[in-house]
Amino acid sequence: MVHIFYAYINEDNHEKLMTDFLPKLPITFQDKIRKYRRWQDAQLSILGRFLLIEGIKKTYDRDCMVSVIQYTKYKKPYFDGYPFKFNISHSGEMVVCALCKEFEIGIDVELISDIKIEDFKLQMTESEWNTIAISNDKRDAFFNYWTQKEAALKANSLGLMLPLKSFEILQNQTKINGEKIFLKEIKIDKKYKCHVSLKKEITDVHLNKLI
Q1: Which of 55, 82, 111, 165 counts the most CB atoms within 10 A of its CB?
Q2: pTM assigned to the model
């Protein structure tokens, strides 16, 4: 089962997050947050940890210290000593956190914005790019592929080290280094595109909004 928690940044919540929640996090993380010049950037990072801690508490009835988060040599975060698999993503004003106990998980959210799609052609396979090119809504098709590819990479043990063009998305599935990865679109907000990935078919997703 996949549990997804999400939140939007809100200036009204910022002081409380900074004074009540941030001091509970590791000093190195606190120092990083206090270096941000914009409250929006600081809150995006804080909310990721907030969703992770609160999500575990609500889903598994466990308190979990983020100080035990470690990173593989490929920069993929994991819990040392806890069975929970997680992944966090943010874009625009939204933060999402995906949780699963059984399998490595990935999630990616992107604000659907006006970008020069052609600049990303080399990140797509020929088949993927042809699908985008003939689509009635090229921007939507691009972000659909982009979030699937990013989410799939995050479920893979190599994290984000592989080039996006090295694997192809086909009917919400892909293979990376011989491992099959399944994808599912998570419809949260029409202004955003979001996909979650797992190394098994995704049939049950619980979506929850926090704060």
Answers
A1: 55
A2: 0.94
